[in-house]
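Input/output pair, single chain:
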Amino acid sequence: MKKSKIILSMGLFVFLVTPLFAEETLQLNDTQPQLVLADAGTASDNSLNVNDLGFTQADLQSDLSQKDLDTRSDMLHIHQILGLTTEVSLLAEFVVGITTANNVENGSTDTSLVSTLGYTTLALYAATASFEMFAPKPKNKKQTGNTGIHVALSWIHLPLMILVPLTGDMLDDRIANNQPLGNLGTVHGVLATALLVTYTSSLLVITF
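Output:
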């Protein structure tokens, strides 16, 4: 199936660029012309603690530059925005998917809208992961607390982000060819629900 091959290729790309280690969300002050770093034990309204960026003082004293820190903070900010955009697209896909399933039960064969939303969500997910992966990272950073939960959930919603469009594409082919759906529709629905729950949870734990 041609579309299945396209989705599989995109899925493999997502797998390659999805972050092995997700980082904390940064809230940057747009009015601050340049990032000002403070010592690890210092808190200030006009600065970010180096620990907030995932760097220790030892890192800063070795091979990390101000440019690395600025690049990291900018890329994680984009990562956050794209992550929220992906959530909106995923929610829309889920709602439209339910409506489409009901229409198919009544004889409709039009699944174009939910398919388009599926491709869009997958592309946004890949872009979101890319900005985290390619951001400069500190060495030997351990993931704990909410960040650790965020990482654990990513290993669940990553394969689901590939499996959901694959099973959806299989459903599209069966519907278009008037073939029996069997249990495929139920499997697709369960996977889609699990994807929405795990992705939304991973977004919430790192944002709040």
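DSSP finds six helices and two strands in the chain. Residues 66-105 form the longest helix (40 residues).
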